[in-house]
Amino acid sequence: MNFAFLKFHRHLFVILFVVLASVVAMTIQLGDLKTFAQIDFFDAAGEGGITLMTLLWLFFTLISRPAGKVTHWLFVGLTLTNVSMLLDFMDEFVQYPADSAWLSTIESLPAPIGMVILSVALYQWHLEQMTINAQLRRTERYYRDHSLTDFVTGLYSAKYMKNQLERECTQVKKRQSTVAVMMIDIRNFDCFNRKHGDQQGDILLREVAQLILMNLRDEDLACRYASDRFVIMLPNTTLLTAQAMANDIELSISNLAFKFGPSSVANYQHVTSCALIFDGQEGVDDMLSQLNNAMLATKHAVNLQASA
Amino acid sequence: MNWFERDDDILLCRQFTVALVDLAKQSGIHPDKILKGTRCFYNDLIKPEYCISVQALLVIIDNVNKLSTRQDLSFLLGRKFFPSHVGMLGQAFLNCSNIAQMLRICQCFQFQLCPFLFVQVSKTTGKTHLIFNSAVGTLHDHQQRFLYEFMFTAMLGALKFRLGELVPLSIKLPYRAVEYTEQYQVHWGGKVQFDQQIAMITIADNWLYKPLPDSSLPLKKMALNEAKVQRLTACKIGFVQAVCQYIKCKMATQDISLEACAAHFKMSPATFKRKLSHHQTRYQQLLDQLRSQHAIFLMTENQQSNERIASSLQFTDLTNFRRAFKRWTGMTPTDFRHKCGQF
How close is the nearest chain A Cα to the Cα of B89, in Å? Predict the structure, then answer.
């Protein structure tokens, strides 16, 4: 687990601690402790469990979110719910004298308020997620699985692409249309890595990935295939359009003035691209190995041209 | 004693482990977790001539396999291997005038370059075949995958480096197809076949003898001389490799009983068996593995008849050979030929 977000929420943890501590202190102050025989441990275990669970949800919410309005709403909602649960739990251990009986009447009050606030917060979260989804277009289609993202570029990995291609193929067969698949390979990436180190290589990969995304349409999907190779799926596209788009990407990457760390010297990289078109009859592995062969042939031709 | 065992400290860390630990560290795994169970620490690894055992390397591979979801670590490691991780030999490789010379250096300096896998070179018309086997006994599936991915990427990377592009090769692997075939396609390029009961790289001779640009014989000699001086202090082969080589060279005509082999290594049969079981293997297992490989090679590359193969393996009759082949591969020779013919 990554606890990087925790440091933004120190004040929230202080508030939570103060609230929970004062609830416990107040109940003990106002009520009398039950004798051992009076405690229903079965009930206590159940209610204690619920209290712990809500605390756990609160914890996971806080470690996964940066500070902000939505986070605050979620925090307030969950804390109020938790206070109710805690009061209920303390009930099992203390008995209130007649003049403090109001405590047990209001103990269920924070929960509904908290849940209303939580619902508002979740709606806000939904709006926020929609904005983030809009930023994710071209890297994600219909389906989310964080375990398939590529560590270096932030794009999805080859496995995600295979799943999506499979899905697209069934669609293509139904509609009797075609899907174009493009492959992009950075030229002399080994050489670049050897000269400038792997870390710079990783940065280059990330920037090339961003540049590829900028050149795509909203319904396209780009993934990192392996090493310095990217695969892009272009639904409903003719071969000519795909080749034109591949050309655009080649052009824009060759104009990227890549900088190493603080140095201001521009370094220009070139990529090789190839595109093929499929009608959904082949299997996904077959499609990808055809594409790889096409890439090998293109690279061979480019090398010949360079040496001639 | 010119062989080493699994837990002898013979692997130079700066060559085989530091890069791996660093790569894993970059993907967010703490070095201590990777080194767990090896009884060494990150600070030990970076001492200049620190060595660990093959067993420790296998433990590291286990840990990486368990802790990392990345499938490209072995490939990245292989890509880094040449020319910077091989010391003086890198200079020698860079000045070879063709691939065949590079291959020769690989064989002479196997201990320095690849002590855990050994290669046997076979020729058929116009082609050269490199057959690989473990020099350190039986490996688990993921250990085997990791080492083959690592070493093959390093070799093919060296070829690509010297020739300027990926060479058309055909590669056979003994293990089952993996999910991440894209790594194989991108890093190896050539035709890769899985589940072939043999680990083999086949290269056409015209590539092997194609003159390489930018090579210098004197520089290569100088580099090799220096490497040879270093080699004087340590040049061993894995114990299992020594046994395999013994079997291979006597397989066709001589006595290859366990007793004869143990006597060759100047051990009692009991000690010999114990040493092999220490490497997770048995004599019969090695015998089966090498004979099945021999048969498969002759069948697929030389198209030899069952009779000839059987006699070259000291089988007295064909029925016995067929039965043995079925035991080794799960298929009769006819079925096997049929399956290979489909490719």
Answer: 17
Binary contact (A226, B27; C-beta < 8 A): no
Q: Which of residues 20-39 of B touch A (CB under 8 A)?
A: 26-27
Residue positions counted in chain A: 308
Residue A270 has pLDDT above 60, yes or no: yes
Tell me the Cα Rg of chain A: 29
Q: What is the ipTM of this complex?
A: 0.80
Average pLDDT taken over every residue of chain B:
88
User: Which pLDDT value is given to residue A242?
Assistant: 95
Task: Report the residue from A226, A227, A303 with minimal CB separation from B164.
Answer: A303
Which residue from A58, A7, A41, A189 is spatially nearest to B187, judged by alpha carbons?
A: A189
Secondary-structure class of domain A146-307 per CATH? alpha beta
Q: Which CATH class is domain B237-341?
A: mainly alpha
**Residue A108: pLDDT band with limits 50, 70, 90:** confident
What mean pLDDT is reported for chain A? 89
In this complex, is the C-beta atom of B160 within 8 Å of any C-beta atom belonging to chain A? yes
Q: pLDDT tens for residues B101-113? A: 999 999 888 888 8
DSSP helix/strand/coil, B332: coil
Q: Could you tell me which of B28, B59, B56 has the C-alpha nearest to residue B44?
A: B56
The nearest alpha carbon in chain A to B83 belongs to A194
Domain positions in chain B are 7-69, 71-233, 237-341
- Residue B181's Cβ-side half-sphere holds a number of Cα atoms within 13 Å equal to 17
| CATH 3.30.70.270 residue ranges for chain A | 146-307
